[in-house]
Amino acid sequence: MGAETLHRLYGPEAEADPTGLYEKLRAEHGAVAPVLVQGDLPAWLVLGHRENLDVARTPSRFSRDPRRWRDMQEGNVPADHPLTPMTAWQPVCHFVDGADHERLRGAVTASLARFDRRGVRRYVKRFADQLIDAFADSGKGDLVTDFAEPLPMLVMTQLVGAPDSYGPRLVEAARDMTRGTATAVASNEYVTLALQELVERKHAAPGRDFTSWLLEDSTSLTDEEIVEHLRLVLIAAFETTANLIASTLRMVLTDRRFRANLSGGHMTLPDALEQVLWDEPPLTTILGRWATGDTVLGDRQIQAGDMLLLGLAGGNVDPQIRPDLSLPVHGNRSHLAFSSGPHECPGQDIGRAIADTGIDTLMTRLPDLELGVQEGELSWSASLMSRRLVSLPVTFTPRGSATTSSSPLPAAKAEPLPPAALPPAPAPAGGGRAAPRASWWARLLRR
After folding, report:
1. Which residues does 348 contact at the CB level (< 8 Å), separation at least 6?
2. pTM for the whole thing?
């Protein structure tokens, strides 16, 4: 099939309606579709649920190592290619297989397992309250820029042991990097320097945090490996969790059936998150896998070195497993939102905890949230790997901001790198919290 007849996963058609393009490709090609990525390089988009699991779970046939990419070996991927930041090999667990993967992944999962779940939720509650305080007096806000985007990074900076002051600047830098702006390279350099400095700090003064636990791990990761894994965890948590929070809030504010299922007790908040992970996964595709040899997938002949993209959004709505998309999934977790197999997202439970606790805190503090614009005015931006809600304006009854005992968010600073964290500010005298209110979701379920 000539390149001129293939659909591009970038450009106007893909950016305007990526899910519509996936269905067009499914109708034309079935479970595995030939496509073009940036630079009109050929690839395969996997659209079948079963075929996605086949690729994700068999690294012996479909490797995670980008050095197998035939186009890269043949010199067709220049250093300044748009996909280079995602395909240039690095010493991280999602770019290796076999024993190397087990060593790196083992250190990550063992360190993540040391977190106290209740402690994570306390961080989420603290930062969610601080973010809400910043706009609670105004009676209006944008739940994407004011809440969904900053919350995951602020929490993750605490979990990796970074000072509070890192959070706002890292949010800006991560947002810049993932959107491929003209300053993305400078933002990437800032993140790298900040994480290198963090690792040096933890060598001198370890704590009970992810960075220190990576340093302590028996696998003896190098400092370079630790920095790369910190960057991976921070960026992955930022993009995916922010999209999950924004999509769930949009569903609550715009979908009467979704809200009715919650209010009627037919769906819990964790179940609601799983429904969103099926219908609007935070990442629409994952780049990539590379065939280790000639093979067959979905009746397609795949050649050694071919690149494949896991089609998470397409696979989740595969008619073979969901013939009626209007039926609720009732907490079913067999979606592809976190991939599957040996490279399945190791931090998915933390992502769920951030989204769950953050949304509950928001709706408890601001129970009468309403969409501030017509639903048709909402807009999205799309890239090769995700579709992101641009903004979610809301209105509500002004609540006042003096409701938390947490220290205020530090102001964002560009340069130099943020100093070490200061001790938390004490609660103002006589300024204790108002009596705890029942969870919005709990009240909703009692109606």
Report:
1. 338
2. 0.85
